[in-house]
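re: ur question from yesterday

yeah so i grabbed the chain u mentioned. its 93 aa long if i counted rite. heres the sequnce exactly as i have it in my notes:
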Amino acid sequence: MIIISFLFKLGCAPLHFWAPDLYDGLPTYISLWMITIPKMAVLFTISQLSLISLSAGWSLFIVFGFVSLLVGSLGLGSQWKIKRFLAYSSISN
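ran it thru and got these structure tokens back, copy pasting raw so excuse formatting
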């Protein structure tokens, strides 16, 4: 459940539906903050947890990563607003 909540905060593909709408509705400086700071904190936490247990959940991360790359890349093609473009870019990254 903790891993799923981290993947939700990162905006991974099956859990990504909130990201473009949220980033599009916020002011630009808050959108940029939401794209960088919390995601860096979650990635740091995941990296620290992976040092504790090396084999737990890696297949889940690989599947979510592949689906995120696919959905983010397909979503980028149809975006004309810069904030939604940044949201889909962060999903694919």
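noticed a couple things. The helical segments are 2-10, 18-25, 28-52, 58-76, 82-92. also The chain has a mean pLDDT of 78.
anyway ttyl
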